[in-house]
Amino acid sequence: MNETVQVSGIAKRYGKSTVVRDVSFTLRAGETVALVGHNGAGKTTLIKLMLGLIRPTNGTVRVLGEDPATGDFAVRQRLGYLPESVSFNMALSGRETLRFYARLKRVDATAAQELFERVGLAKEAVDRPVRTYSKGMRQRLGLAQALLGAPRILLLDEPTSGLDPALRRNFYDLIAELRGKGTTVLLSSHALTELEGRTDRLIIINNGVAIADGTLDDLRRIAQLPTRISVKLSQIDAAPKWANGGMNWRRSVDGVLDAEILPDRKIRLLHDITADAALISGLTITEPTLDDLYAHFLKAQVTK
Amino acid sequence: MTNVLTIACKEIQEGTRNRWVLATTLLMAALALTLTFLGSAPTGTVGVNRLDVVIVSLSSLTIFLVPLIALLLSHDAIVGEMERGTMLLLLSYPIGRREIVFGKFLGHLAILAFATLFGYGVAAIALMATGSEIAPESWRAFASMIASSIMLGAVFAAIGYLTSSLASERTTAGGIAIGVWLFFVLIYDMALLGGLVAAQGQTIPTGVLNAFLLANPTDVYRLLNLGSGGASTLSAMGGVAEYTGLSSPVLLVALGFWALAPLGFATVIFSRREL
Q: What pLDDT does residue A65 have?
């Protein structure tokens, strides 16, 4: 896979405060990466650095092989950006707004009009002034301008904030479609639960430092967070052999056994449990959620 | 260049949509018509060419109104877009910051030019309609008055861009713009006059007076329009103009400098600004 964005040893200081320090990562074509961190962790600053809107104090940024802050603007033609809480001139209509941005990106205006359908902006809304738009409609217009000219890299800052659940799904379908075409998508978010299963990779930022970088499975493996297993016994007072194997099983009144188990012992235990299928009537396995992972890495950084 | 024009077109589009163009044109036309018919009433139908009278009164109007409109349009141009968050998105496009400033300036200048041309043009047409005889030289003076009014607008638009690129908040930029207007339009001349009175008739060297007059774009404009032709005798500016000996080309260059220098500074400051 070819690399589209390379960030190495980057730092950004504003006066005395350091917003980003020593962050390095590489993004590849066809990859969807989530930049996760609480408010003010440095996500937006990182995105601005990748856009070349600000210059790093230390380190280098390469986007499609070039420095985005200098050089010609050819790189930006292949870049789509959706700022956090995007805003437009209120007096112009959606169509006029998109036409303006299409002209700046040298994209054919008729091709731009098709984007309205793709992001699901209703036909009757397109010619109304942006002033009358709801937050969701504005976000869709923002997404439409980011998609102008089939960009190779999409940088989306909090793209789903303010979208209702249906729109959110719609949005992730669009992202999946773009990933299929080889677009690099970087989205920043702090809504962790919705990222599950929708991103290839996670970069966790805290206080300007990248504290974790990897696929969801990688991070789970590193974190060694316990999996929660709960077994419903077919007979309430049964005492299966596996239930006294040194683990802390909690038994509730209705015959449900609960335990937290580390990943390396998970498979063997599951094997034991399911060996005698007659004993159990139900089995639930809860993997650690992204929220758990995030909390784990934050805590790990504090104790380091 | 395409980018500059794209930005300029958008600025004009916004101006027509939020009624800026309409409002300024109507305001200028209304004031111009009032001055044309009320202002020339006392002179009656004496030998003086009526358009010359109009030029004198419209020039005085321009000095107050055009800088104000230009500053109102421009003080918001950069800092306002930054505050609304639209600048961030715009800068992520393949466009240079210089192109943004020049494009916006061009757009605002077009709005000003439109308002001046049509607002003042109405006055001249109304004079013609009432059957006044207008000499060709007066027409020429009228045309140059409109052109220099637009230039004066350009000067204050450029100053507005400079305040807009310096200020960190819209309200600050607005405050500075009002201060700039008060200084150049009202305070400066009063202070200059006060200085001359304090000098108690001692002759002031021409060079010093020239420097003082060139240091204020509204005075440059005043000399340019009231210092020669039929208007000079009407406005009593002829005496000053003769004394200073500043010719029209010099004055034009001065106005051009007053427009380009602040715009250049605005571009440099905006280019260095971090978002």
A: 85
Chain-chain contact of A73 with B95 (C-beta, under 8 angstroms):
yes
Q: Do domains A3-221 and A226-287 have the same CATH topology?
A: no
Q: Rounded CA gap, A159 and A157, in Å?
A: 5
Q: Is the pLDDT of residue A296 over 70?
A: yes
Q: B185-197 burial string, b = 16+ CB within 10 Å, else e? A: beebbeebeeeee
Show me where the domains of chain A are located.
3-221, 226-287
Listed residue (B102, B79, B88) closest to B7, CA to CA = B102
Q: How much is the mean pLDDT over chain B?
A: 86
Q: A3-221 domain in CATH 3.40.50.300? A: yes
Chain B residues contacting A via beta carbons under 8 Å? 2-3, 6, 10, 13-14, 17-18, 84-86, 88-96, 274-275
Closest of A53, A66, A89, A79 to residue B91, by C-alpha: A53
pLDDT band at B207 (very low <50, low <70, confident <90, very high): confident
Q: List, for residues A91-116, the tens digit of each pLDDT value.
A: 899 999 999 999 999 888 887 888 88
Inter-chain residue contact A53 with B91, CB threshold 8 Å: yes
| Residue with the two structure tokens 């339009």 | B185
What's the CATH fold of domain A226-287?
Alpha-Beta Plaits (3.30.70)
Range of the domain at B162: 2-272
A86 interaction partners in chain B (CB closer than 8 Å) = 85, 89
Q: Nearest Cβ partner of B89 from A86, A103, A129?
A: A86
